[in-house]
């Protein structure tokens, strides 16, 4: 636990700084703001990949969905904690750089403005949305790459964030040997409530992604 925590605490900020340095070397024409924005997203992509690989590993090595515990599922929390902390700071940096013409230096006021303006942003999901649409920033909305990326977002979000819940219920049904529709009545009520409150924001975000996709493929310039 402590070793993971220490490693991750050094890894994410270290990678962030490394990305900024490398970008300065690879794209000298870019402003510091653009380098910070892209580096933040690169580090988030690395984290997302690590989380996905861990998730798949856990699912694949799980035999009993009720009692099995995989060390990765527990240990990854100690990767997430430093990542979230780091991520909030980077979000603040990005906000500050975007609004720099208004706020000249870091202050309580600039932190407050970040929290006010980006109160939704402080939730991880919106950040993911923005991470997954980095191409928008480069004015490449019309490129094929952007459209392919949009479809990938839609499909992966649906598979990993929405279908995950029926998948869990189905895994339980298979484990216990009951039909799927009986699962909500067999598991404790608080599990149903917790699952419902977890899927609710995902459905909300999925609706937003669909709306964005409709705009993208509908051909409306807005
Ligand atoms: C969601 O439901 C599954 C059963 O399908 C249960 O194992 C899990 O604990 C629930 N999630 C939460 C957060 O309660």
TrEMBL record:
Q: Where in the cell is it found?
A: Membrane
TM region(s), chain numbering: 42-60, 72-92, 148-172, 187-206
Cellular component (GO) terms are:
endoplasmic reticulum; membrane
- GO BP, one annotated term: lipid homeostasis
Write out the entry's keywords from A to Z. Membrane, Transmembrane, Transmembrane helix
The protein's topology relative to the membrane is: Multi-pass membrane protein
**Could you tell me which residue ranges the TLC domain spans?**
33-218
- Pfam name, any one: TRAM_LAG1_CLN8
Main location (coarse class): membrane
- This protein's record includes keyword Transmembrane helix: yes
Q: List the protein's name.
A: TLC domain containing 3A
- The scientific name of the source species is Catharus ustulatus
Starting at the broadest rank, the lineage of the source organism is: Eukaryota, Metazoa, Chordata, Craniata, Vertebrata
